[in-house]
Amino acid sequence: MASKTEDFELIAPDLGDTDKIELVRWNFQLGDQINEGSEVCELVTDKASFPMESPINGILARIDKEKGSIIKKGEILGMIRRKVSE
């Protein structure tokens, strides 16, 4: 049985009425295994911090925004890849 992969983009959520969202920490490195529900990275606004959880089991395949980046809602932060059976 062959396997293929699916990619899931980590997209910055709408965190309400804020102009500045900072990506303060990645909790994983490229190639690391991530479990569904794991806190992949942390976003901070002037009001609170928000952990971003993985929606799937997979590996961190790409980081688009580095630690310390100022981001906007809807921007792609990175990508998680999982293997799926056909």
For the record, the CATH architecture stands as: Beta Barrel
Structural class: mainly beta
- H/E element order: EEEEEEEE
Q: CATH homologous superfamily?
A: RNA polymerase II/Efflux pump adaptor protein, barrel-sandwich hybrid domain
> Termini distance?
7 Å
Low-confidence stretches: none
What percentage of amino acids are in beta strands?
over 45%
- Main sheet specs: 4 strands, antiparallel
Q: In total, how many domains does the architecture comprise?
A: 1
Name the helicity range.
under 10%
Rounded mean pLDDT score: 93
Keywords: Acyltransferase, Lipoyl, Transferase
GO cellular component, one term: cytoplasm
Subunit structure: Forms a 24-polypeptide structural core with octahedral symmetry.
Cofactor: (R)-lipoate
Chain-wise SSE layout:
Blueprint: E1 3-11, E2 21-26, E3 33-34, E4 39-44, E5 49-53, E6 58-63, E7 70-71, E8 76-85
Antiparallel strand pairs: 1-8, 2-4, 2-7, 3-6, 4-5, 6-8
Structural summary, described in words:
The protein is 0% helix and 53% strand. The mean pLDDT is 93. The strands form 2 sheets. The chain has a 4-stranded antiparallel sheet with strand order 1-8-6-3, with no helix packed on it. The protein has a single domain (3-85), classed as RNA polymerase II/Efflux pump adaptor protein, barrel-sandwich hybrid domain (OB fold (Dihydrolipoamide Acetyltransferase, E2P), Beta Barrel), CATH 2.40.50. It has strands at 3-11, 21-26, 33-34, 39-44, 49-53, 58-63, 70-71, 76-85. The protein is built from no helices and 8 strands. A hairpin with a 4-residue loop joins strand 4 (39-44) and strand 5 (49-53). It is an all-beta fold.
